[in-house]
Amino acid sequence: MKIKRRNDLSLRLLEIFGTLMVHQTTVATAAELGISQPSVSTAIKQLEDQLQFALFERHKKRMLPTSEARSLFEEVEPLFEQLRSVESRVRDLRGASTGKLRIMATPPLGHSVVPVALHAFLASRPRVTVQYDVRRMENVIDAVAIGAIDLGLVLGLDAHPGVVIRTLRTDRMVALIKPGHPLEELSVIGPADAATHGFIGLDRASRLGLLLQTAFESARVPYTPQVEVRYCHTAAVLAQSGNGVAVVDPYTASFLPNMGLVKRAFDPMIPVGACLLTRPGRPISRLASAFCDDFEGALLK
Q: Which partner for 287 in 23, 96, 103, 272 could form a disulfide, CB atoms 3.0-4.6 Å apart?
């Protein structure tokens, strides 16, 4: 059954009425709403025609509400409060200044770039909360694929059927050695150099470990590390202790200035991309998009 709505009250007319009830002059009401004074008078006349009773009596320059107007205002005032709350919520959503964001990253990015990006992101968003975790790549991929998180941040993922991958930046892995190391005089360190002086391997079950092993094999150098670790940060710590050459991602290397390690280019080049993972078929929110901007900015520093 179709419902006739010709006589329904206009929300805009009620808004003008409520504002006039507060200010009691058409001049102040017009200024508050950003409309002309005649528009206020016309709106009140339209509302009175719909209601079929008077709302105001003019006394000098003031509009005095009738008893019916006061009763009506008691009914619609809570509606105005809800409307203001909705408008405030819309402003927050538009400005990405409220809500909850769920992020997961692998250690190389999670312990280097992401903290810097989060600091910039949250500085102007006191009402935003972030659920943040650092896990292995397979955990990040699974969490994105099932919608448990909004954004995943990983290194060196070229393709995966369960997620959408966007490579934000690509750099090359670097070699780290302790100051005074015999290889410090070289500008470029290769697999043969690392093998001669001992190197710290990355777990071959990991993406970066597989890339490193492939680089050694392409240079026809056996990949036989005496010490093998899962995380690049661990490799850097061992290099600082004099355990050999660590070949790590550039982000870990750039965010370890206090270790005083010497950084050198590694050849053959091992490109590694900083990747953003999202769930297929689900557009990211304005809040997530704002964080991505800050994350990309932190990558460039």
A: 96
